[in-house]
Amino acid sequence: MLLIVPNANITYVITAGNSQSLFTIDAKSGEIRTTPRRLDREKQVEPVLEVTIRQPHSLSNTALSSTTYVAVNVLDENDHAPVFLERLYKLFVPVIPHHHHHQQPQG
């Protein structure tokens, strides 16, 4: 368990799961935000970020750290809405007569 000292020099870092740079993290507050790059639910429904918190240890030259995973639920957006170039389309569908063939009973 990581003991956090209030007002200590704590930093937050995304250490894995952000290869496309879709997220940023505020190093001081730990707030995770999206970047201007677009998230797409069709490509990744629930990205999982590995976040590491570090606190320098005042008695030694090492840092205390802990890692957790943050699952981001991406909501879908209609990003493939239909687009019509014309306001009106006229279509002609030919009528094809359908003939029924009845078989005579053999006897």
UniProtKB/TrEMBL annotation:
Gene Ontology CC terms, in alphabetical order: adherens junction; catenin complex
SUPFAM superfamilies: Cadherin-like
KW tRNA-binding (keyword) present: no
Keywords tagged on the record: Calcium, Membrane, Repeat, Signal, Transmembrane, Transmembrane helix
InterPro entries: Cadherin, Cadherin-like_dom, Cadherin-like_sf, Cadherin_CS
GO biological process: adherens junction organization; calcium-dependent cell-cell adhesion via plasma membrane cell adhesion molecules; cell migration; cell morphogenesis; cell-cell adhesion mediated by cadherin; cell-cell junction assembly; homophilic cell adhesion via plasma membrane adhesion molecules
Localization, UniProt: Membrane
Keyword Lipid metabolism tagged: no
Location (main, coarse): membrane
GO molecular function: beta-catenin binding; cadherin binding; calcium ion binding
Annotated organism of origin: Petrolisthes cinctipes
Domain Cadherin residue range list: 7-84
Protein name: Cadherin domain-containing protein
Membrane topology of the entry: Single-pass membrane protein
Pfam families recorded: Cadherin
